[in-house]
Fold these 2 entries.
Entry 1:
Amino acid sequence: MYVTESLGVDYIEQPSFDMQITYDEMTIYQPAFFVLFPGVDPTPDVELVGAKYGKTSEEKTFTNISMGQGQEQIAMNALKDCA
């Protein structure tokens, strides 16, 4: 309440995440990496923006790997394939 009263609601409420804005800021030299928390899954938003530009899993132009134990080699292979 103190921050809201002193500085305003803009310092308390975060605008909703917009994957399109994030995509627009990305380049081949400035990629985006997502650090996720339990209950947070940006995959549908990422897939939606990808599909808008013709990048899909079906076309093999989009690869989604949920990193975790044992996924390192799969990720390395995907990077090599994409390169």
Note: The CA atoms of residues 61 and 67 lie 19 Å apart.
Entry 2:
Amino acid sequence: MKRLLSNWNNYPVVEAREVSFDYEKEIGLKLAQNSIPHGNGRCYGDASLSSDVVNTLRYDKVLAFDEVNGIITCQSGLLLSDLLQIIVPRGWFLPVTPGTKFITVGGAVASDVHGKNHHVDGSFSRHIDSTSVLTGTGETFVCNATTYPDLFWATCGGMGLTGIILEVKFRLKRINTAYIRQKQIKARNLDEIMDLFEQNSAYAYSVAWIDCLKSGKNFGRSILILGDHATVDEVKTRNILVPKEKALVSVPFYLPSFVLNGFSVKLFNALYYAKNYKKVMESVVHYDGFYYPLDSILSWNKIYGKKGFVQYQFVLPLNSSKSGLIDVLARINRKGTGSFLAVLKLFGEQDNLISFPMKGYTLALDFPIQPGLFEFLDELDKIVADYGGRIYLSKDARMKNEIFWKTYPRAPQFREILRKYDPENRFVSRLSQRLTLKP
């Protein structure tokens, strides 16, 4: 039976037949041509959308946990939120986590997610010991960086196009408490925030909120948020290893489109910047508020209305990051189409096959869908490409294929690996068709 399906940004909406499975042996009986794996639908765009989707959420068991060395093996449908409930009380944490805990482990691999610690710990793929993948040939391969490395690196960041990720074995991070020692620093402009990132590179975690509509001497004003795992002595509570309980607040309905406009974005930005009443503020906070501030509001995507929104995230090489960010932010400023959530991060070194990160700065912005938006983003794509950057596939719903092939130099090699492990194109998504990775 088909139903309407979309991901977190509510765009695009497709009609799809969705099947689930509890055991690996069931998949072959349910797998249709042109299928794509689909987890909790928390990516942005069309990477996990097709005419047929294979939902992995019921395939969610922990298979092994070495609590001494912090190595866990689990099925791909396990949510990070459920995994945290298991590992945090035992003194372990995720090696890398994105800004939401409501994604699956398989999704973390397929998107090769990054977090606030990429400059120190890289992306999720760096911490994987092995993963098993059911490919389009009908064979299941256990692969890693040395065994079937072509399949492994094509799967990490490969948007589910190599097949269905079944199990993942990866290394965790030791923690003493569930708290973060947080430091926030206000930056007057883009020059200052970029200097602050470099000056504070020793922190394990760093991210900045940036005001993308401020002009003049305060162009690019920001708040840098730094963090390290807190020690037992720094936490003023007895319950030092308690995971966060479920959120109690929810957005009950889609807001009307007129709520999001240039005035409301400027007002929000002014209030957000003013909330830090001192230049530097320090505190000890629970990991949930530090890593996952938006997870405390269920269905926050409804704020953008029924038409949905686009999360536009790009990365620029370090040597062109400043000039590229100035160019992009200036155009957004002139357009007056600002973003409530504008997040700036500094990436470290990475040179994977098809993964998004490279050494440089990445900026993520949310834009409500409205007339003229896609044409404007096409303009930004060209700027990003000209500066040597690229767009994050896991958050893309509209990039043209010529931009993709220009900005992902190893895409031809990736496509050859797909042909090897999926010669009949069993796994196809809206994204793969749009970018001509598969027919």
Note: Residues 353 and 410 are 6 Å apart (CA to CA).
